[in-house]
Amino acid sequence: MSKTKEKIASAAKSLFNSEGYGSVTIRMIALKLDMSSGNLNYHFKKKEDILESLYFDMVTEFDRRIAELGTAELSLESIKADIESSMERMLEYVFFWTDLYNLLRSNQKIAAHFESVYEKRVAGYQFMLNSLLERGLMCGFEFQEEANLLIERMINFSDTWIYASALYHKKIDNVYLLRQASQLISMLYPYLSQAGKEEYRKIYPHYFVESNLGKSG
Questions:
Q1: What is the pLDDT of residue 185?
Q2: Closest CA to 161 of 59, 76, 84
Q3: Which domains does the chain carry?
Q4: What pLDDT sits at residue 171?
Q5: How many angstroms separate the Cα of 185 from the Cα of each of 55, 79, 80, 92?
Q6: DSSP E strand boundaries for 78-143
Q7: For a Cys-Cys bond, which of 81, 116, 146, 165 suits 141, CB 3.0-4.6 Å?
Q8: Which of 188, 191, 178 lies closest to 76 in space, CA to CA?
């Protein structure tokens, strides 16, 4: 991508994040860059072309990490670091995740890619669960669908945590991001072995401070 196209994409991303994709026009992007709309259209014929450029830039990193999964030795600590890194990456493109449904409906090219990588994401989570099982950090599942349902919950949460922040007017800062990452990891907790739970406690010791919740009398 040329430097001019990179500048346009960067300015558009900033506006999309602050104003929402649907509210931004080519003219607004051009004005932000002190550029004519005609000059901008020379590089991107329409706003949807900028959207596609940003989307495929975003998923390049995700695709790379999925491809490298098979070479990694996973632990709860490394899973935590990977989830937090992924969430930070998502925040760079917050506009996409807060308007995910509408953008997938309106852009077939993006929708087709998003759907095509779903199986790769499932395979990535299956690798994660198998690695934790092999290391004795997880107990076996009672039935195969139990594992599949867990993977679906984790993927759905990954896709919608930013949308939920907008829905409930939550401020997305580092504290909020870490809280969401811990929620995702905590979906594993009921399936962890004793060794896995001990590793989990080391990561989130503050979750195990004694409380009166559930106590009677």
A1: 97
A2: 84
A3: 1-45 (1.10.10.60), 47-208 (1.10.357.10)
A4: 83
A5: 26, 8, 7, 22
A6: none
A7: 146
A8: 188
How far apart (Å, rounded) are the C-alpha atoms in residues 65 and 56?
14
Q: Which two tokens stand for residue 129?
A: 């669960």
pLDDT digits (tens, 9 = 90+) for 96-123: 999 999 999 999 999 999 999 899 889 8
Structure tokens at 31: 């004005």
Distance CA 65, CA 77 (A): 16
Structure tokens at 69: 């999964």
Tokens (6 digits) for 37: 């709309």
Phi-psi domain of 75 (left: phi exceeds 0; alpha: psi -120 through 50; beta: other): beta
| Residue tagged 């349902």 (tokens) | 149
CB 197 within 8 A of CB 123: no
- The verdict on pTM exceeding 0.85 is yes
At residue 27, the pLDDT reads 96
DSSP 143: S
